[in-house]
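tool_call: predict_structure(chain=1)
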Amino acid sequence: MLQFRQIQAFHSIMDTGTVTRAAKRLGISQPGVSNLISILEHELGFALFTRISGRLHPTAEAYRLASSTETVIAGFEQLSRQARAIRSLDIGKLDVAGLPELSIAFIPQAIHAFVQDKPDINISFQTRSSTLIQQMVSDRIVEIGVAEAPIEHDNLASETFSYECFCVLPEDHKLAIKAVITPEDLHGEPLITLGPGHMTYHRLREIFSARNCVWNDRCQTRLFHTALVFVQGGLGVALVDPFTIAAQETKNIVVRRFDPAVSFDLAIIWARDKPVSVLGQAFIQQLKHQMAAAKLEFDNPAFL
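tool_result:
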């Protein structure tokens, strides 16, 4: 069976003209090149070179074969270049889906930072609900997702991060003078929530129940962004995630910490039953780093 190294030795001799130069190009000894040629001739069943006055001269068959080896060598070099590009993350496709809260700025900024020096990376980014993101990653429609926890599919691996939600009030609200808002402060106050389908709704309602505070759920919406806009319009008070607060204009509102904390849990997800690409692995690591850094930023008193 023909081996690529044999073809490479033959091509190098034909290209450079001597065994000495071929050996230098290939980084092996002259006897090593001669041995490769001998094995190749045995496999082919005909001679490729004749030796005249101590020098190798290609046979007619060698010239005919050389035209085909050019294609083989060029194809291998192209394959090698592509492999190097994949290894160095210079080529590939990045398929990501994220929930709306992180799609305003955080994930697009993370993607931009990751691919800005990689012009040959093809990018697909979709904004979907957490339920749909989990399904898309499970079905391998996208490779990486950022969704709300918990993760409901057994074939998904994940890294989870928890972030503290903040209390957002109209700037002229009577509670705006306080540095920290408590459930007792919001006793009977009109609330804007994300409804019974969201983790923060249940966590906040449980706190109100435990503290015997009156629950006044005036307005329900599906997005933190919309809740923030409703607060700006004076419809009530809301707990909003820090990513939305960091990405949105906070005109006409004040942001305060809420005690006890109500957490918003996010997870980077990928399929367990399919190998993650080298590019995907690198992006997951960057996302982990940036989400951990975001948590430190949001926990810092200077964030407000």
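agent: Residues 160 and 200 are 16 Å apart (CA to CA). Proceeding to next step.
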